[in-house]
Every structure is written in structure tokens, then in C-alpha cells.
Records
---
Amino acid sequence: MPVDFSGTWNLVSNDNFEGYMVALGIDFATRKVAKMLKPQKVIKQDGDSFYIHTTSTFRDYLLEFKVGEEFDEDTKGLDNRKCKSLVTWENDKLVCVQTGEKKNRGWTHWLEGDDLHLELRCENQVCRQVFKRA
Ligand code: VLZ
């Protein structure tokens, strides 16, 4: 059985989100609000087609893509940049490279036990998030 990330997921831990946001150039006031949030992710996966909706009381962010097909990403409402993004499988991990102004930008999702993990990378900063099923 291939891995299936589908479901509704609640954030339970968020290590170094502050460092990640600083690396993205998010302003102080926005960071103060954003780091208090407990975002929820709604993921719909149909084979290699993904819908990932990250929602919170403050901002939300929708990403839709197909694994292996590069797309133009506009991080509207986050750091408001444009990048070329490509998501690929590395074994059972979903790996995104976001090519643009920021070096070393991307993220990785994987499942571990009942948890959904997300590593967010930008420049020399790594944020580690863990989600549990709602
Ligand atoms: O996740 O790129 O699941 O896009 C944080 C929302 C969402 C809170 C961060 C507001 C996006 C922040 C994480 C205000 C600045 C992300 C991908 C992988 C899908």
C-alpha cells in the first residue's frame, strides 16, 4: 500500500517556527501572532495529486500540486514570494524544493506512527512540526 496523507491534522508541536519565519523575512508583529497559532492541515491525496490546505484563525494557505510536475507557487499571505516548486517522492517521504529568491527553501512531509511530520527549510533554518489526526 502506498502512503496516504489524507486527513485532517492538528498541529501539536512547532520547533523553531520563529527561526523559519525570520529567514523568510516575516515582520515582527506578524511573527508574534503567527507563532501563537495552532494550524490545521486538511490533506486530500489522490495518488500523486495533492490538496494541502493549512488553516488558522489568522491566515490560511492552499497548495495543490501533482508529484513530479513543477509548478509556479505564490506564497500569498505568507512571505508573498514567487517560486518554482517541485514535489517528489523520496521513498515514502514527500519532498518539495521551492526554487526562488531564498536559498535552500523547501519542505518534507512524512508519516511516523499516527503522526504527520513536516520539516520546513529556509536558508540555514529548519522548523519541525508534528500533527495528530483531528
Ligand atoms: O506547508 O508551506 O504542508 O504549503 C502557516 C500558516 C503555514 C500560519 C505555513 C500563518 C505554510 C503564518 C507551511 C503567517 C506568516 C507550508 C506546506 C506543506 C504546504
---
Amino acid sequence: MGKALIIGCGGVASVAIHKCVQNSEVFEEICIASRTKSKCDKLKIKLDGGKTKITTAQVDANNVEELIALIEEVKPDIVMNFALPYQDLTIMDACLETKTHYMDTANYEPEDTAKFEYKWQWDYRERFEKAGITALLGSGFDPGVTGVFSAHALKYYFDEIEYIDILDCNAGDHGYPFATNFNPEINIREVSANGRYWENGKWIETKPMEIKRVYNFPEIGKIDMYLLYHEELESLAKNIPGLKRIRFFMTFGQSYLTHLKCLENVGMTSIEPIEFEGKQIIPLQFLKAVLPDPASLGPRTKGKTNIGCIFKGKKDGNDKTYYVYNVCDHEECNKEVGSQAVSYTTGVPAMIGAAMILTGKWNKPGVYNIEEFDPDPFMEALNKWGLPWQEDFDPELVDSEPPKPST
Ligand code: NDP
């Protein structure tokens, strides 16, 4: 049915590529292109032999001309972006120039400022509309499935959603004292930034990890979680009418937090360049180089993830609560695709998002966040492709326990 050009070949891309190959009816052909071509070739050797034709290429996704040349050579129906958030705009520019659909899993962030916002990508909306192509933004799990869950809740269970709490729990253990489950640079930029949530039309800023709650996650148990800013808060606050408050919580173990604090205290998480042996280096990029590669954690990680959304609002004049979530097992993911569950829960929705566009189920020229599409075919595909969801109509709420002081 279609051909995809996949940019990036790290932890998330590897899962998405395995899934594209499983879904060969839709992904008849894929080209895997990244900065380090040997990673693409290694994956091709592992996955060749099925129905999907696989080719590989080298590309610097910071270079629009190189991207345009590659797209013109490969002639894909869609470009799937699994490089870093810094490359979103160059890849969107190349898609515009070649009139090719686009999707990603993380919103644009300038490399020299730890500030991610949708405004840069939303600015492309009119140009994509005019070119007759679609950009699907944030088709991972969070952002991604959390937006689909929100559209599903609104479509079936609420007249008005007033409160959303997004809960991201990773109870996996990889055995290292400190490692991140996706790109360390992006992960540390995200968790060391100030927290932020949206209430009554305003953003409320908190210190990093200032707000802590304990939640009893289904199939996992009680874990500490902390309020963070996360990019889907921005789009959902805009796209869910009548919303009064939206927050995002992520779980962290004590060892992770202690290491992070120590690394911060000694300046290792800084993105300000420093001079080292006559060369400019960025401490956080150096730290990334010495930390375990998230793509190598698959065989070591045990335990489960649970990511979902709790909604509160009104239906037919009555109060209503609804929790929808997915539980994923690290070891099962590794058995299936050789990756841990954080890459898995991002790579599967990415494949599904691209399939929605390639099959024409989602067909809307312009730039859209995932909650702006019909959630039905995506929700069905989650059950089919390895991320089944569960529902609870009387869930424990985040604030049912009194707040505990942050450590
Ligand atoms: P990795 O670091 O494992 O992979 C990134 C890949 O992009 C690597 O293959 C890297 O190449 C390649 N790359 C980086 N810069 C360039 C460039 N200039 N040109 C070409 N290729 C480049 O990251 P992850 O797989 O962990 O994460 C990928 C994306 O997924 C990130 O944007 C992350 O924020 C997002 N994400 C989204 C989630 C969600 O739920 N929505 C959850 C987790 C992650 P090389 O091998 O040479 O370094």
C-alpha cells in the first residue's frame, strides 16, 4: 500500500521498524536513514526476508538539502521522524518542498534552549494545507496515545471533560544505578526543567519535582510520581473544550532522583557549552556519551509500565470519572522486538499513526496533533498491535491521598 522513509535508527525507531515489517500489508517498502548508517544496515540484516522491502541510507537530518535529495530519490508516501526534536523543522521543510506526509513523536525544541513548544510546528499549518499534505504531531505514547485516549473519552463518555491527569509509570528495573529509557539528553532536559500545569486558562509553574503524589497503579502498586511539564498539555489544553485543569505526572525511583540531583549539582546536566582541552563541549552531551544506550536496555529490564489518563467531567448533567490505560511488560517487549517497554510504547503508536495516514483513515491536509483525528481506528489498532487498553469507571483519583512533602 505504501512506502515510508524512516529517519533515525535509535531505540524508538527500532521498535517502529519491527512493527512496520509486521504490518507489511501497509508498509510495503521502508527506507531506514540515519546519521550512522551502520545501525540501519544492522537492522536491515535482522529484518530482511519478509514481505516489506527494506533499503538504508545515510542522512544528516539537520541539512534540508540532503533531506530533499533523499526524499526525491526514495519517493516515500510519508516521512517518519525518529531523530531528535532538534530536527523536526528541517524534516518538515523537506516534506513541504517534496509534498510528502510527515509524522513525529516529539515536538520541536531548539538545541540551545531547553524549551519545547508547539508554536514552531503549528506555524506550518497553512503551508501544509496548501501543499495538500498532512503532518501528524506527537504519535508516540505521551504525547500520542494520551491524546487519542482524550479524544476517545470525549467522543464516548463525556459532554464536557473538566480535569485530565496523565499518569506515566515505569516500574521497570534495568539493574544500572542510573540510566534513561529514552535518549538521555532529551530525557534529562525534560525532567530537570521546571514543572508546569494548566488551570483555569493559565499556566502554573512549579520547581522541578516540587509536586509529589503517590498513586496505586493497576498491576504495579503504589509508586511516587512527580508533576512535570509535558508537551501534550499544550495541545490538549487547546483542543479539549471546557477543560479546567490538565496535569502530567511521571514516576521516578529514589536512585534516579539522587543521581540526577548529584549530576545537576556538579554541572553535568548543563547545555551551556564549556571549553575542554581546547574544544567546546556541552556537558549534557558528554554525559549522554558515557551513559548506557537506551536501545541496549531491552535484555536487562524487568517489570511493567502503566501509562494512562484519568478524566473527570460531566455526562448528561452528572459527574463522571473515567480512567483508560495500557500496561506493558518490559520482558515481553524484549522477547517480541528486542527492546524495553518505553521504546515499545512509543514505537508501536508511531507505526499506527503512519498507517492511519497511509491507509487514508486519517486524511486531513495541514498540521495536526493526534487528538484532532477520529480516535476509533487508532484505538482498535492499539489492541491489535500490542498495546491493549483497559478501562476503569471508578478509579482512585490522584488527590485522594494528602500531598506528601517532596524529598
Ligand atoms: P535515540 O537517541 O536512541 O535515537 C535517535 C536517532 O536519531 C539515532 O539513531 C541518531 O543517530 C539519530 N539522529 C540524531 N541526530 C541526527 C541527525 N542530525 N541526522 C540523522 N539522524 C540523527 O533516541 P530515542 O529513539 O530514544 O528517541 C527518539 C525520539 O523519540 C526522540 O525525539 C524522543 O524525544 C522521542 N520519544 C517520544 C516518546 C513519546 O512517547 N512520544 C517517548 C520516548 C521518546 P546516531 O545513531 O548517529 O546517534
